[in-house]
Write a structure and sequence with these properties.
heterodimer; A: Alpha-Beta Plaits; Sulfite Reductase Hemoprotein, domain 1; 4 domains; five-stranded antiparallel beta sheet; B: alpha/beta; seven-stranded mixed beta sheet; 5 helices; 24% helix
Chain lengths: 556, 141
C-alpha cells in the first residue's frame, strides 16, 4: 500500500491549516457564502438537507486497518456512530458540525487520509477496480497509476474552478469492474502489439440526466504519456466546456456538441505542447509508487479446513458461493463483505463493524481493505483456510449476509432521507425490495441481478447501468418510480431502457417482484441471467409482465 | 481604483500606459509598448503569431468561479509569452497560489475586494512555490 512521503504529509497538514483559516474568514465575513462554498466543497464539505456532510476520499478504494479504525473513531467522536460508503469509493459522515470539521480533517491526516476534491468543480477522487492487485484476470495493478493521478490532480492550479466536476476511473483488467465507460475519463489497461502495457482512453461517459456511454478517444496511450495527455483533455475542456448551463457543462456534452473528432484534434495538439513539460520525473515517481504496491507474501498451506467447513455448514457454503471471487494466488480468495443486510441502509456501517473489519484484515487479510463502488467492503487477500474464522467473526458482527451480486445487493443513493437534491426516497425502496426477496427465499435461485436506485435524475445510484434501474421522481408532490431495464456497467456498458409509465411508491415493490418472478418463467435455463434473458427477448415480454392489461389504468 | 498584488503584498499600479482590448490590437505593434485585455472566453491560440509584439497581457476573471483564466495563462506561457501577465477581476486570496502557479505575475482586484480581503490573507499564500505537486511532477530527471 502507498505510504505518504514527507511531501504528501506536509501538503495535507498545510491544507488543513488553510481550511481552518477559511472557516475563520467565513465566520468573520472576509469570505462571502458564495466565495466560501467552492472552498468547502473542494475540501469535501457539502451542505445537505439537515446538516453538513463530510465526504472523505478513500483513494482507489484502498484502506489499511489503522485507517478503518480512525474512520470508526471519527464516526463516534464527531458523528452519530456510523459512516456511509458511497459509489465513488468515498465514505460520508452525515452529521458533522462546521466548527469540528478542521479537527476531523486533522484526524484524517493522522492516518494519511483527506477529503480533498471529493466535491466541487474539481477533479474528484480517482477510482479503481476494487479487486486491484488480487484479481485473477488482471494485466497490471491500476492503483499506482491512480495514485500518480491523485498527486497530479491534487490542487492542480488550472483545474480547481472547472466548468463542473470531473471523474476519472482506472481498471487494470479486461473485465471492467470500475465502470470506466460512465466516467468523464476512463482508463482501461491494454497491451499494444508488442505486449507493452498502456491505456485505452475513454472520454465523455457519464450518467446523470443525460446518460452517455464513453467513447474511445485514444486506442493506445503509452504509460509514460498519461499525465500530459489527461492534462490536455481537462485543459481543452476547461476552455471549451459550457459555463452558461450547469446541466450542459460536463465533458460528455462538450464531446457531444463539438464531436469526438474535433475534441481529439484539440487534445492531440495540446498534448504535443504539454508533453515536453514532463521531463521524466513523473515516471521515476511512478516507479517509487509501484514499489509500494508489491503483492503481499502469499503462503502455501492446505485448504482442507475450508473444504470441510463447506461440507458441514450450509450457511457458510452459501456465503462462500456468493461472496468470494477468484484470486490470482493459489489457495486465496477475495472476500466481499456485504454492507447490504436485508432491510438495512445500503452502504452504512457502524463504528463497531468498521473495527471488526479492520481486525479481520489485520489477522487474516494482509492488512488490506477495499471499498467497492457497489458500497461493499472487501478483504482482497484471504487464505481459504482462514475463511471459516473470518465468516464466524463476520456473523457475530451482523456482516455475513450472503448476497453479493444478488437481487438485494442494491446500490442506492441517499435519496430524500438526506439529500437536498432528491425528488424521492431511495433507501426505503432498497430496504423493502431486499426484505421482500428475503421473505420469498428466491434470491439464490434468481442469481446475478443488479438493481440500482436513484432518488433524482442526477443518477447518483447509477440506475442507468442497473440490470433493473429505478428512478424516483416527484410527480405533483407524489413520489413516482420509473423502471429501466438492460443497463450494464461493465466493459459491455449499456444504458437501460425505460419500460413505460412509472409507479407510485406503494406499487413499486410489487412491480419489481412481478418483473423478477416473470423472469424466472422466461429464462431458457437456470443459468441464463436476468440480463441475458432481457438481451435475448427484448423489452416486450417484460413490459407485458409489468403492465398487465387490467392494471393499465392504474399505472401513472 | 484597484490594488495590485504580488508576493510582496499590496502594490499600487506602476503601469503608466493604457490597456487595449484584444480586438483592437494594432496590425503591427512591434515598435510600441502594448498592453492588452483578454476576456475569459478568448482562445489564446489566436495570439500565436503576435506574442512577440505584446508586452503585457491582462486576463479577465468575471467571477472567481470562472477558472478559464488559469488555463489561458498556462497556455500563453506554453506558447512562449515572456511578458507581464496579470489576472484581473474577482479573485479571492485562496486563488493567489493558483494564479502564480499558472503563470501569472500578479493579481489585480478592486479596492472593495481588497478591503474585505486584507493584505495578510494574500501574503499567507505568497508561499505558492511550496507544497506544489505540479512542480514536483514536472521536474527534470
Amino acid at each position: 500500500m502507498y505510504s505518504y512521503t514527507d511531501f504528501d504529509e506536509a501538503f495535507v497538514r498545510e491544507r488543513v491549516s488553510q481550511f481552518r483559516h477559511q472557516v475563520e474568514r467565513r465566520i468573520s465575513g472576509a469570505l462571502t457564502e458564495d466565495e466560501f462554498k467552492p472552498l468547502r466543497l473542494m475540501n469535501g464539505l457539502y451542505l445537505q438537507l439537515h446538516a453538513y456532510m463530510l465526504r472523505v476520499a478513500v483513494p482507489y478504494g484502498t484502506l489499511n486497518p489503522a485507517q478503518m479504525r480512525q474512520l470508526a473513531y471519527i464516526a463516534e467522536r464527531w458523528d452519530k456512530g456510523y459512516g456511509h460508503f458511497t459509489t465513488r469509493q468515498n465514505i460520508q459522515f452525515n452529521w458533522p458540525k462546521l466548527k469540528d470539521v478542521p479537527d476531523i480533517l486533522d484526524a484524517l491526516a493522522d492516518v494519511q487520509m483527506h477529503a480533498i476534491q471529493t466535491s466541487g468543480n474539481t477533479i474528484r477522487n480517482v477510482t479503481a477496480d476494487h479487486f486491484a492487485g488480487a484479481a485473477a484476470d488482471e494485466i497490471e495493478d491500476p492503483r499506482p497509476v491512480a495514485e500518480l493521478l491523485r498527486q497530479w490532480s491534487t490542487d492542480h492550479p488550472e483545474f480547481q474552478f472547472l466548468p463542473r466536476k470531473f471523474k476519472i476511473a482506472v481498471t487494470g483488467s479486461p473485465n471492467d469492474r470500475a465502470v470506466t465507460k460512465a466516467h468523464d475519463v476512463g482508463l482501461r489497461m491494454v497491451r499494444d502489439a508488442s505486449g507493452e502495457p498502456g491505456y485505452e482512453v475513454i472520454v465523455g461517459g457519464g450518467l446523470g440526466r443525460t446518460p452517455m456511454v464513453g467513447k474511445v478517444i485514444r486506442d493506445f496511450l503509452p504509460k509514460a504519456d498519461l499525465l500530459p495527455y489527461i492534462e490536455a483533455v481537462v485543459s481543452v475542456w476547461n476552455l471549451l466546456g459550457r459555463r452558461d448551463n450547469k446541466y450542459k457543462s460536463r465533458i460528455k456534452i462538450t464531446v457531444h456538441e463539438n464531436g469526438l473528432e474535433k475534441i481529439r484534434d484539440l487534445v492531440e495538439e495540446r498534448f504535443n505542447a504539454l508533453r515536453p513539460e514532463f521531463g521524466g520525473v513523473d515516471q521515476t515517481l511512478l516507479k517509487e509508487i509501484e514499489a509500494q504496491f508489491t503483492p503481499p507474501a502469499f503462503v502455501s498451506k492446505p485448504t482442507d479446513a475450508y473444504e470441510a467447513a463447506r461440507a458441514s455448514n450450509a450457511a457458510f457454503r452459501s456465503w462462500t458461493d456468493t461472496n468470494l471471487a477468484a484470486h490470482k494466488a493459489d489457495g486465496y480468495a477475495i472476500v466481499s463483505i456485504s454492507i447490504k443486510k436485508h432491510g438495512a441502509t445500503p452502504g452504512d456501517a457502524t463504528a463497531d463493524q468498521m473495527r471488526v473489519m479492520a481486525d479481520l484484515a489485520e489477522s487474516y487479510g494482509h492488512s488490506e481493505l477495499r471499498i467497492s463502488h457497489e458500497q461493499n467492503v472487501i478483504l482482497p487477500h484471504v487464505h481459504k483456510s482462514d475463511l471459516p474464522a473470518v465468516y464466524a467473526a463476520l456473523r457475530d458482527a451482523d456482516l455475513a449476509t450472503a448476497n453479493i451480486g444478488l437481487v438485494s445487493d442494491i446500490i442506492a443513493c441517499p435519496g430524500m432521507d438526506y439529500c437536498a437534491l432528491a425528488t424521492a426516497r431511495s433507501i426505503p425502496i432498497a430496504q423493502e425490495i431486499a426484505t421482500r426477496f428475503d421473505e420469498l427465499k428466491l434470491e439464490h435461485d434468481i442469481g446475478p441481478l443488479k438493481i440500482k436506485i436513484s432518488g433524482c435524475i442526477n443518477a447518483c445510484g447509477h440506475h442507468h447501468v442497473g440490470h433493473i434501474g429505478i428512478l424516483g421522481l416527484d410527480r405533483a408532490g407524489v413520489e413516482n418510480y420509473q423502471i429501466t431495464l438492460g443497463g450494464d456497467g461493465t466493459e459491455d456498458a449499456a444504458i437501460g431502457t425505460r419500460t413505460g409509465p412509472g409507479f407510485p411508491a406503494e406499487e413499486i415493490i410489487p412491480a419489481i417482484e412481478r418483473l423478477v418472478l416473470g423472469y424466472l418463467d422466461l429464462r431458457s435455463s437456470p443459468e441464463e441471467t436476468f440480463l441475458e434473458t432481457y438481451r435475448r427477448l427484448g423489452m416486450e415480454p417484460f413490459k407485458a409482465i409489468l403492465y398487465p392489461p387490467e392494471d393499465k389504468a392504474n399505472a401513472a | 481604483m484597484s490594488v495590485i498584488i504580488t508576493d510582496q503584498g499590496f502594490q499600487t499600479e506602476d503601469w503608466t500606459g493604457s490597456f487595449t482590448p484584444v480586438t483592437d490590437l494594432p496590425a503591427n505593434a512591434a515598435s510600441v509598448e502594448v498592453a492588452i485585455d483578454l476576456p475569459s472566453d478568448f482562445d489564446p491560440l489566436k495570439l500565436a503569431d503576435r506574442l512577440e509584439e505584446i508586452d503585457f497581457i491582462r486576463v479577465d476573471f468575471p467571477s472567481f468561479s470562472d477558472g478559464r483564466g488559469f488555463t489561458i495563462a498556462r497556455q500563453l506561457r506554453l506558447m512562449g509569452f515572456g511578458g507581464r501577465l496579470r489576472a484581473r477581476g474577482h479573485l479571492i486570496s485562496d486563488q493567489y497560489a493558483m494564479a502564480r502557479r499558472a503563470g501569472f505575475d500578479e493579481v489585480e482586484i478592486s479596492d472593495e475586494q481588497a478591503a474585505r480581503q486584507p493584505e495578510a490573507d494574500w501574503l499567507r499564500r505568497a508561499n505558492w512555490q511550496a507544497h506544489d505537486y505540479q512542480s514536483r511532477l514536472r521536474a527534470r530527471g
